[in-house]
Amino acid sequence: MPVEIRIPTPLRRFTGEKAHIDVSADVLEGALTALFSQHPGLKAQLVDEKGGIRSFVNIYVNGDDIRFLEGASTPLAEGDKIAIVPAIAGGSGALSREEIARYSRHLLLPEVAVAGQQKLKNGRVLLVGAGGLGSPAALYLAAAGVGTIGLVDFDVVDESNLQRQILHDTTTIGQPKLVSARRRLEALNPHVKVELFEERLTSENVLSIFDGFDVVLDGTDNFATRYLTNDACFFLKKPNVYGSIFRFEGQASVFWPEKGPCYRCLYPSPPPPGLVPSCAEGGVLGVLPGVVGALQATEALKILLGTGRPLTGRLLLYDALELSFSELKLRRDPACPLCGENRTITGLVDYAEFCGLGRGDEPPAGAEITPGELDTWVKRGDPVELIDVREPHEAAICAIDGARLIPLASLPERVHEIDGGRTIVVHCKSGARSARAVALLKQAGLTRTYNLRGGILAWAREVDPSLPVY
Ligand SMILES: [Zn+2]
What we know:
The chain is elongated. By secondary structure, it is an alpha/beta fold. The protein is built from 18 helices and 18 strands. Strands 8-7-6-9-10-11-12-13 form an 8-stranded mixed β-sheet, sandwiched between helices. Helix content is about 30%, strand content about 20%. Zinc ion binds near residues 261, 262, 264 and 336.
């Protein structure tokens, strides 16, 4: 019987761009065999190793799915029209031929398979921060085929980021992190849509940014943004995949409203500013965010797939020096002001104030001088006592000539060493620790004390470019 087989657009490259192939057969199987003998390249696309029709391909005879007819034995009559409809011709979430090839190692996993990969393709994950944790998380989520990846960040790529922020590279130093990130993610996987939010996350914009996403991945480096992320996820009922790193230690958990505790159940209030140093002050092993960020990406994928046991109600602790993982049980705190029984937080608050900071995470302002002003004072021969309150290992990297090293922690017991008859200028790396030192020295009666604005980094930039920076 002469019958006609309609070839869908994506498969026409195997038929010399022909849209219709005429064959002669009595049953469907015979028609396909005739088709494959004319166009052998089609067979591998439509038939699996066992000779069956691939699960993402449907075949219709005169508009009826052969699974509801007699399958491969469906009889054919003259003039019948056979249509091959692979999932690629379908609607939202369907995988293209290229995507099927790219994600083949996922498609082989029963826990993912085609249906799971389509969930990932329809999935939307927002990364708060495109830095140490956001880098590996974004790369793995993009590689895995998460359809939409949102990034919130307003920083630019600095040379000192590259020791761990593998989303960026030497050629993107000085560029906005989001521009650098998008370039890398699109090069890695052009099937992924990257949405950029180049702004500081605030109480005003957080709900509208988070609202369009299924999962939020917290890769921030400051407490104000962490509490803001936690609270916004609670109000929007979105899972918050938490990760944090410091020096050689990492933490991870999933705070999922209505399923488990929140970040405030774990830490009701942030430490006072300055007690816990940031990575910029305390340092971090470059590969550490790689481990923790990859764990966060794993949790985000599991949530999108709806498979496995998420890290909800558990706090994972990772110690890189010991190479140990340990797990603590987290329970919802009945007294939690956000998700507890008597809630006192019913809306977003001022997070900078909550964390004891001035607006914008800046250290409390004191008397400041610029590097240019200090340079003028020194060149003029003014009696200036320059105090460096960084750690000795930082001073070993670079130091300003004539500065005396008194690490911030030992300043209270060494105040007497400072000559109160001179003008005192205090500096650190970027100005935060020295601002605290200025406050301390003023309390001790040394009123003619100034903070070097921007620290040694600003000094290197504006006065002495020969200094190495870190
Ligand atoms: Zn809570």
